[in-house]
Amino acid sequence: MNDNMNKGFDQVAAFQRLWTDSFANMASVWSQFSPGSPPSEEMRKMRGGMLKVLAETWDEYMRTPQFMEMMKGSLNGAIDLKRMARDGMNRVHEQFENPSKEDIDGVLMAIRHVERRLLDRLEGLDDRVANLDEKIDKVGQRIAKQEHAIEPRGQTSKNKAEKPAATTGAKHSPSI
After folding, report:
1. CA 42 from centroid of its chain's CA atoms
2. pTM of the predicted protein model
3. Phi, psi dihedral angles at 34 (to 5 degrees)
4. From CA 153, how far away is CA 173, in angstroms rounded?
5. Cβ neighbours of 70 (radius 10 Å)
């Protein structure tokens, strides 16, 4: 691992040297001009050509396996550093007996699970209540139909019961 780190540092140093040399050369060329005396047309063409060559050089360099390997190593290092920092903070939380982010996430996940189950059960109860309401309405309609059917029969039997008592004139005596 130590060799890999040294190799990575060497690559970074080469990368840095390339940048500093490029900027130093460009600064020395352009330092002779001031805003009062802009460069001539030939100098502008030369500047455009230099920037084009510089862009192509950097594009080629960024596509080299060494640069890609260096970027991969730095990204992996950043991810490892983040993981180590998170693990260290979790250990600190454990030592102080404070809840960690993972603990809180676990509790929130459990609450969401319970909430989801309760909502599912409530939806099931809504369906059952709707079915019961329909059944109650149907039973109410049947009872209403039966009451309407019973009322005319009850009125005719009352009339029959009253007519014989009125015609015979017999009085009922209480039985002792």
Report:
1. 58
2. 0.37
3. -125, 170
4. 28
5. 19
Length of the chain: 176
| CA–CA separation, 55 and 53 (whole Å) | 5
Each residue's pLDDT, cut to its tens digit, for the chain (176 residues) gives 577 777 777 877 887 887 787 777 776 666 666 666 666 777 778 778 888 888 888 888 889 898 899 899 999 999 999 999 999 988 888 888 888 788 899 999 999 999 999 999 999 999 999 999 999 999 999 998 888 887 766 565 555 555 555 455 555 555 55
- Give the integer Cα–Cα distance in Å for 118 and 123: 9
Residue 89: which residues within 8 A CB-CB, separation 6 or more? 100
Listed in sequence order, the residues at least 6 apart from 61 whose beta carbon sits closer than 8 Å to its beta carbon are 15, 18, 67
Given CA atoms 57, 60, 63, 68 in this order, what sign does their dihedral have?
negative
Question: From the CA atom positions of the chain, what is the Rg in Å?
Answer: 48
